[in-house]
Write a structure and sequence with these properties.
The complex is a heterodimer of chains A (116) and B (110). Chain A has 116 residues and is mostly beta strands. In chain A, strands 2, 4, 5, 6, 9, 10 and 11 form a 7-stranded mixed beta sheet that branches. In chain A, a hairpin with a 4-residue loop joins strand 7 and strand 8. By secondary structure, chain B is mainly beta. In chain B, strands 1, 3, 4, 7, 8 and 9 form a 6-stranded mixed beta sheet that branches. In chain B, strand 5 and strand 6 form a beta hairpin. Classes of the chains: A mainly beta (116), B mainly beta (110). Chains A and B meet through strand 5 and strand 10 of A and strand 3, strand 4, strand 7 and strand 8 of B.
Chain lengths: 116, 110
């Protein structure tokens, strides 16, 4: 069965960077693109970026341009999102999701807390 | 990339129908037939309920339906049940491998 398993919760100080991983299984990794979203406490979903897993090509939300990097490791069937220059406004649950039939499969979410 | 517009909340009694609207532009909803809807319970990951405007994934009850007209899309829940009380988000492809989301609608079952 298809699974997306994300790395555990992270705590960072303002100005630092964080990397969250999304390990996939149960399907051919290069067949489906991966999307990253986030959700701040009590807020709605926010699209961050998109990676074509086969080519490695990425597209990012204008809001995060210059601060976000999405990469993939095809051998590990894993996608990563890295966000730099963190502020308290980046405190959120970060989700990866597989594209195909809408966003049909999601990771469990990773809480990133930015606090001094 | 402007957000899609959804009502903050809708409500209905069990058995009634409710419709959630999602308004965009010709650059997103109006330009592509790639509108999807997600249900989210507190503390849980979202779940796709409708994709490609009106396609229902396996396992989603047929009382959930989607449609689109021009730059707006809608999600209708017929025969509302207590378990349908959740937040719902619309999402549209906006070209160039970008997505745009609505702000979310809280559905309350009275």
């Amino acid at each position: 069965q298809v699974q997306l398993v994300q790395s555990g919760a992270e705590v960072r100080e303002p100005g630092a960077s964080v990397r969250v991983s999304c390990k996939t299984s149960g399907y051919r990794f290069t067949n489906n693109d991966i999307i990253w979203m986030r959700q701040a406490p009590g807020q709605g979903l926010e699209w961050m970026g998109w990676i074509n897993v086969g080519s490695g090509n990425t597209q990012y939300s204008q809001k995060f341009q210059g601060r976000v990097t999405i990469t993939r490791d095809t051998y590990a069937s894993t996608v990563y999102v890295e966000l730099s220059r963190l502020t308290s406004e980046d405190t959120a649950v970060y989700y990866c999701a597989r594209n195909g039939g809408g966003l049909g499969y999601w990771g469990q979410g990773t809480l990133v807390t930015v606090s001094a | 990339q402007s957000a899609l517009t959804q009502p903050r909340s809708v409500s209905g009694s069990p058995g009634q129908s409710v419709t959630i609207s999602c308004t965009g532009t010709s650059s997103d909803i109006g330009g592509y037939n790639f509108v999807s809807w997600y249900q989210q319970y507190p503390g849980k990951a979202p779940k796709v309920m409708i994709y490609d405007v009106n396609q229902r994934p396996s396992g989603v009850p047929d009382r959930f339906s989607g449609s689109k007209f021009g730059n707006a899309a809608s999600l209708t829940i017929s025969g509302l049940q207590a378990e349908d009380e959740a937040d719902y988000y619309c999402c549209s492809y906006a070209g160039g491998h970008t997505l745009v989301l609505g702000g979310g609608t809280k559905v309350t079952v009275l």
